[in-house]
Write a structure and sequence with these properties.
By secondary structure, the chain is an all-alpha fold. The chain has two domains: about 15-185, no CATH class; about 190-265, no CATH class. About 75% of the residues lie in helices and about 0% in strands. Strands 1-2 form a two-stranded antiparallel ribbon. Helix 6 (about 190-200) runs parallel beside helix 9 and helix 8 (about 215-225) packs across helix 9. The termini are close together. About 20% of the residues are buried.
């Protein structure tokens, strides 16, 4: 039998949220301390693992540069220009890898701290938000490594190979370039998530995004021109293509959010007895 639940009567979802919110302020502090300690331990363990795999990752990130050098018939070795240059890179990369490896566990600890105070539908939305953010970031890094970097490095090496000056690539400076490009693309690929949040709060709508598409194209072009490390148009277009695609995906995401909000507003609160 279906009955209408009065607004002041708690639903089952409300009861689940209230049961998770009965902790005192002191209990919350204890819980927060526990989650922080476990997160730090996870990062520490991740850094230990990162140190063990640093050499393999250095070989992996060096491969695009070596391919570009080989394609231009140049010495494919990378160099360090200070006595502690390579060991510094080894340690720094291990720390970055440790944070990256521990991030799913850290997010899980944050989730365990926050989830008891959320409603059931909020927990589903938050979990989807976390997973989609991580997937999009990894997709951005993969696009940078497999698509953008080979194009950029080939252009840079070929440009320098035209005259009598030959490149002597420093592994530390190359790592800085790799970090900026890959992390930057990972952040840029979060655009649909940003549009999702703005749509959730009613700041943007699909109509607004479509109406201002030309301005978005202008901003994307400017960002691509600034961020792209080479002046050639081909590389800039390669950089622009996923940004435009992500903006269009964001429009679909915004439309989906708006449709769900309208359905929720039109749907009466019902319970099953």
């Amino acid at each position: 039998m279906t009955e209408i639940i009065p607004p002041d009567q708690p639903t089952r979802d409300d009861a689940e949220q209230e049961s998770g919110a009965r902790m005192s302020f002191f209990d919350h502090l204890v819980e927060l301390r526990t989650r922080l300690i476990r997160s730090l331990l996870g990062i520490g363990l991740g850094m230990v693992v990162g140190m063990f795999i640093s050499q393999h990752v250095i070989n992996l990130i060096s491969e695009p540069m070596q391919r570009a050098l080989r394609a231009n018939h140049l010495d494919e070795h990378l160099y360090y220009t200070s006595p502690a240059g390579y060991i510094g890179l080894y340690i720094t990369l291990g720390l970055y890898l440790g944070i990256a490896l521990a991030m799913p566990y850290v997010l899980y600890q944050i989730w365990l701290f926050v989830a008891p105070g959320l409603y059931k539908h909020e927990r589903r939305a938050a979990s989807g938000f976390i997973v989609s953010s991580m997937v999009l970031f990894v997709c951005g890094v993969a696009f940078g490594y497999f698509v953008l970097l080979p194009q950029v490095l080939t252009f840079l090496v070929a440009f320098a190979n035209e005259g009598p000056i030959k490149p002597l690539i420093s592994i530390n400076e190359y790592f800085e370039l790799i970090l900026v490009v890959l992390v930057g693309l990972g952040v840029i690929f979060e655009l649909p998530v940003l549009i999702f949040i703005l749509s959730l709060f009613g700041i943007v709508t699909p109509k607004f995004l479509l109406r201002n598409f030309r301005y978005a194209m202008l901003i994307i072009t400017i960002v691509a021109a600034i961020v792209t490390p080479t002046p050639d148009a081909t590389t800039m277009l390669i950089f622009m293509a996923p940004m435009i695609a992500l903006y269009l995906v964001g429009i679909v995401v915004s439309w989906s959010v708006l449709r769900r909000k309208r359905r929720a507003e039109a749907k009466p609160r019902v319970g099953v007895s």
